[in-house]
Design brief:
about 190 residues; alpha/beta; 6 helices
Length: about 190
């Protein structure tokens, strides 16, 4: 497992692009990329918001992991924001690595306290008040239980992949599938 903390995302994904140009391990031998971009800090949720529905088999892994928490996967309800094509995981997707993105501002979560309306309000408050501003920093009022739920989802997926010989693939119709298929022979 390699952990990356990219820089210069807002300047054209420069940090993640630099990694794909000189990765720690060859990208054709990289099983998957799981990316958090903005953790949801409004408390536990009944669902997890998926960005870029229909791209990779990692979505199926996410659904299985969410079910262990009694949660469901909800497709992003703000697809017009094009978030799948704007976050750091995209640099790896462009090189064929199957990706999974959870991004707190991709759509209001169905929060245990307040439902989808409260989830939508959290996004409105976050984006409207401090997103990409100097006040975009930790706040003691955050309820990190929702973020912890999502982190646990990725831990479960990583554990499952790490204890298997399975290689997640891009789904039929994904624009990244052909790139990955070209690298199959390099895995051996």
């Amino acid at each position: 497992v390699v952990f990356g903390a990219w820089t210069a995302e807002e300047s054209g994904l420069l940090g993640s692009k630099a990694y794909t140009a000189d990765p720690v391990y060859p990208l054709e031998k990289t099983v998957a990329n799981l990316t958090f971009d903005i953790l949801q800090t409004a408390g536990p949720a009944r669902d997890v918001i998926l960005v870029g529905e229909g791209q990779s088999e990692l979505e199926d892994d996410l659904a299985r992991a969410a079910a262990t928490q009694g949660r469901v996967v909800t497709p992003e309800n703000l697809p017009e924001n094009g978030l799948f094509y704007r976050a750091d995981h995209f640099s790896l997707a462009r090189k064929g690595v199957p990706v999974l993105l959870i991004m707190g501002i991709a759509g209001g979560s169905d929060l245990v306290e307040g439902g989808r309306e409260a989830g939508d309000q959290w996004i409105a408050d976050y984006v409207g008040n401090c997103y990409h501003q100097t006040c975009d920093a930790w706040d003691p009022s955050w309820d990190l239980r929702g973020a912890a739920q999502d982190i646990e989802l990725f831990r479960l997926i990583i554990e499952d992949l790490g204890n298997s010989v399975r290689w997640p693939e891009w789904k039929p119709g994904s624009e990244f599938r052909a790139i990955r298929e070209q690298s199959v022979d390099a895995r051996n």
